[in-house]
Known about the structure:
By secondary structure, the chain is of the alpha+beta class. The protein has 14 helices and twelve strands. It has helices spanning 24-28, 44-52, 69-72, 96-102, 111-117, 138-149, 199-202, 213-217, 238-265, 269-278, 280-293, 295-300, 302-306, 309-317; strands at residues 2-3, 10-11, 35-41, 55-56, 62-63, 76-79, 86-89, 122-129, 175-181, 190-198, 208-210, 224-229.
Amino acid sequence: xxxxxxxxxxxxxxxxxxxxxxxxxxxxxxxxxxxxxxxxxxxxxxxxxxxxxxxxxxxxxxxxxxxxxxxxxxxxxxxxxxxxxxxxxxxxxxxxxxxxxxxxxxxxxxxxxxxxxxxxxxxxxxxxxxxxxxxxxxxxxxxxxxxxxxxxxxxxxxxxxxxxxxxxxxxxxxxxxxxxxxxxxxxxxxxxxxxxxxxxxxxxxxxxxxxxxxxxxxxxxxxxxxxxxxxxxxxxxxxxxxxxxxxxxxxxxxxxxxxxxxxxxxxxxxxxxxxxxxxxxxxxxxxxxxxxxxxxxxxxxxxxxxxxxxxxxxxxxxx
Length: 319
């Protein structure tokens, strides 16, 4: 939601990342006004690579200060052939490519499907390639969009231009720490819940207090946010803050080790292409899907598709 620069009140942005949800027809017909659309696109081979390189955890996200660091940072790559997804793989699960291509849930490669579903609503589509929202280009891209679509210009110094929303630490975060608070009355002992999350999530929350900000700025993970509800501030004490900082020092070291492991085991676009080269049946299904789902962008921004080097290699191996 943002205010128009001209003072014309507020406007709402609806973000869609799937096209297979229940009652989608009713949802798509519920839009009262026509509006422009922004469609973020990427080389399809890069999309598959990034999905395979996602990490997550099976199990809960609530811990205590004495929980071993390796348990907190124990995340794995996903096996997308299973439902629900299993996050216990030591390496990216290449066999999951076939499942991603099938994508019966309508999460991947849905650009044309969304265009058709919203054809009576969309006035114009602005395609944005992933290369336009890298840390070097994102601010200029959003500034240009703000001028075209008449919303408030972005803040140039925001943390969102220099850090990833979904990166190597996203599978570990967010999680919560439950810290018992000392009390003279054992029957009324309270627990302070501290959230360890990403600044990109925390920045949208209200009624929170940030903790240990100077400490976080001194680490490699400057977009981590340590927060508590502002109405729980009375539970804080110098002792708790010191225990929390001691915990974070060890946690950051363990997180660095986990990130190094993840980066060392990620796959590349070349490995995705090798899999498709060896599994022609999967490649043909992907080719048919992309021919259908990239039809609109090919008609309107063929230059973007032509810039996708790995997709062009994929097209060549299919023929």
